[in-house]
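Researcher: Sequence recovery benchmark, item below. Answer with residues only.
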């Protein structure tokens, strides 16, 4: 009986660990009037904020309109990526700036987040 409970617990934990990173949104698209220049300024400020926390991440914009934000940090892992996605400040700010996607990568692992914008 204990073995069965351990197996079920292991399967449940594995399912939880492999669950995709998603955001839940209660509002429609925002930030549609932001320019590429405004997003570039935001990117510079976001990178500085990460560096002040001791997180040496690098950021880049992708696409003609710069609506995909790419974050590269070789030490990012799934728990930290989840922390970023679930942050009450980061995702709303990204949406307010008109970003549609957030792509995070460590070079070994990566997460692509649809910002539903």
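Model:
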């Amino acid at each position: 009986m204990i073995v069965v409970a351990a197996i079920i617990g292991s399967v449940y934990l594995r399912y939880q660990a492999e669950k995709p990173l998603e955001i839940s949104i209660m509002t429609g698209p925002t930030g549609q009037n932001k320019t590429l220049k405004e997003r570039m300024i935001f990117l510079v400020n976001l990178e500085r904020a990460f560096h002040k926390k001791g997180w040496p991440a690098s950021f880049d914009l992708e696409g003609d309109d710069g609506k995909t934000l790419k974050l590269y940090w070789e030490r990012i892992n799934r728990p930290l990526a989840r922390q970023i996605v679930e942050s009450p400040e980061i995702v709303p700010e990204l949406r307010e700036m008109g970003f549609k996607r957030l792509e995070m990568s460590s070079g070994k692992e990566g997460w692509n987040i649809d910002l539903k914008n």
